[in-house]
Amino acid sequence: MNSVLPTAQQPTLDQIAEWQAFIEAGQASVVDPAGLRVLEAAGLCLDLTGQMASPQLGEAGQALLAARDFDLYRDKLLSGQSINNTEDRAAWHTMLRAPAPVEAVAAERQRMNEFIRKADSERRWRNIIHIGIGGSDWGVRLTVGAFGYAGTWRRVRFAASIDGHAIEGALSGLNPHDTLIVLASKSFTTAETLQNGQRAIEWQRNAGVEDPYANLMVVTARPDLAKAWGAPESQIFRLWDWVGGRFSLWSSVGLTTALAVGSDVVAGMHAGAAAMDAHFASASFEKNAPIQMALAGIVNRNALGYASLNIAPYDFRLANLVPYLQQLEMESLGKSVDLDGDPVSVATGPAVWGMPGTDAQHTFFQWLHQSSDGAPVDFIVCQEAGHHWPEHHRSLLANCLAQREALLQGKSYEDALQECLAAGVPQEKAEWLAKHRVHPGGRPSNLIVLPKLTPYTLGALLALYEHKVFVQGVVWGINPFDQWGVEYGKVLAQGITEELSGAKAKDGGHDASTAYWVKRFSG
Which of 85, 107, 453, 471 is most open to solvent, judged by the fewest CB atoms within 10 Å of its CB? Predict the structure, then answer.
């Protein structure tokens, strides 16, 4: 498990005794509606009552982590040692939110805060165009949506997709002379970001802005490429190679967030995430929320065979949490080879999907309750609302708890039959209709409760999921910090783009369908 290069043949995960014991214990365990299991971590409550549980499963989980050298890998993660073996670097995003970070991080944090203070004091830039994609986009959308959902004095628009409608819509109706362009790209080679950035610069220049680059801020790990592109050195904020794109929310990528909703929001999120980091590092096995959440997810995936995970945030402000977690989980855990490059012998990361409640109840909860497959659900809710309509919040809380209870307890045929008869349905019809009203129950879920939505609690929530994903990566023996599947598609797209533009001869190596459409699209 410790090697990073091919070695002599090692047992596959499904051949390890501790794994077999864990899976067997998971399959033999039950969801006990009477067995309350609530953990507290960094101000959050994680209710695991809806997950499989037994003393044997707990013991098997602890033994499995020991067999997978979990403590060693956790120490490497949190101390900034090289842990991303395919790219030979650390994954030290926890340092970005540390209360006392290393000098380089502290200096960049101070630079960003000084820039924001100056811009705010001058009331400069009424509009912001945030240009980035993936990790350079979703975290900013999430935080601006969470804390600026009712509007801010700066209007923020996003352009991520290469689809020209994205940048056209982002620029439409804005004053180019009072618009800041924030360009976020770790590699500064991302095609979507650079093309959209070029369109934004052209838009300002065509409107008579004398120096469009004066209205540009760049966040990147390649300041040399940004300078060559035209960005002044003083307007480039630094990323580091050890910051994975889907973890870059904690870096200067948060510049747009700070300009839109305040530096105190960014600082609060850092504090909440750092508190969860401390919990993850020191809490015992039984009380460690990321560990317990991760093991429950592995039981659902590998012992019970669930292929997906539903995210159900019962908070309108967290609409962008679902795509944020989709990237975090599916880009990290969508792997099929282990650290040695050998095929993983068990199923790895599930598909992640969802939308906020109660909209979700009118969209796909029928499938969650009564389909032949179903999926585990993470219910996320705030105990205290941020608005002034208590009756709305009571209804929201009631819906969240009710949907979870229905998944957990279900409804038997006998109960459904008695309901029909009590409603006056004739016996014969009631016996038929009751079959359609049965809920199997016992479907796994988590309930994550935030006291209220604050920067601190959102930071803690995101770090909870980050560490959960890390634990699962360690157990499955995969690298959760690379994304080669994404990179391959980028390479293919570059070649096809050249073919479509006529800059390159048509490639005979395409499959028949791709060759047909390349020819047809290029005229």
Answer: 107
Question: HEC states along 85-150?
Answer: CCCCEECCHHHHCCCCCCHHHHHHHHHHHHHHHHHHHCCCCCEEEEECCHHHCHHHHHHHHHHCCC
- Is the same domain home to 193 and 242? yes
Furthest-apart CA atoms within the chain: distance in Å: 82
**Does a structural domain hold residue 164?**
yes
Instruction: Tell whether 257 is covered by a domain.
Output: yes
Write out the two tokens for 264.
């105190």
Return the structure tokens found at 291.
Answer: 């560990």
Q: How many CA atoms lie within 13 A of 195 on its CB side?
A: 15
The answer to whether position 422 is within a domain reads no
- Average pLDDT (473-488) is 93
Residue 118 lies in a domain: yes
Both 257 and 282 in one domain: the answer is no
Nearest to 256 by CA among 346, 161, 356, 130: 130
Residues acting as catalytic residues: 331, 362, 490
- The answer to whether residues 35 and 53 touch, using CB atoms and an 8 Å cutoff, is yes
Look-up of token digits 């993850």: 280
215 and 160 share one domain: yes
Average pLDDT over every residue of 116-134: 96
Q: Quote the domain boundaries for residue 129.
A: 101-261
pLDDT per residue over 209-251, tens digit each? 999 999 999 999 999 999 999 999 999 999 999 999 999 999 9
Torsional sign, CA 354, 275, 480, 375:
negative
